[in-house]
Amino acid sequence: MDVTTLIDAVARIKSEADELTHQEIIDRLSGPLAEFTTSTENQGFAEAYRPSGNYTRLLLNDPQEPYQIVLVFWGPGRGSPIHDHDDTIGAVSALTGETKEIKYIVTRCEGEHVKLTQGSEFTIAPGRVTPILPEDDKQLHLMINEERRWAATVHVYLTAIHRYRQYEPAPDGSFRTAETSLWFDECGVGRRMTRSARS
Ligand SMILES: [Fe+2]
Fold this sequence. Notes:
Blueprint: H1 3-16, H2 22-37, H3 40-48, E1 55-59, E2 68-74, E3 82-83, E4 90-96, E5 99-110, E6 113-124, E7 130-132, E8 140-144, E9 151-157, E10 163-169, E11 175-181, H4 189-198
Helix pairs in contact: 1-2
């Protein structure tokens, strides 16, 4: 599946989302995302891409669209802090390499401070999809590349994320929420991906 077909599939699921349960949305996102991430042509694009830093985030579709399809590059040993996804529904898989995902559950809120407990662990790899859901046990996670090679992951957010929260550990074992904005190193990268597949 090429990037244009993936973008079209996500646009269609977005337009039908009001009629679907959360699980139906995840089921419909998972098939195209697994096909996209197991395509050797798409993997070749990620292998050939030279990220500028140890963590690079590219928006594959256009920023004015109401959803986001994001390609993230993780250097060896690089990971994210625990974060939420501003209540969007989405799905994540890997195009190259693999990353570990750990879900977290909010057990108590006290103002800016929250208590978290560790939930399930998952290995994100090509064709293996993990859901992002607004439910309390499926919204927060961290990701880390524990391998010695680069990893590239693909994140579909059915509602575009602009602001989200990171959870920073406090000395007393709780976490402090810090609102942050989602930035991209580059947008509309899917168009370049299509051109390189043709050449
Ligand atoms: Fe995430």
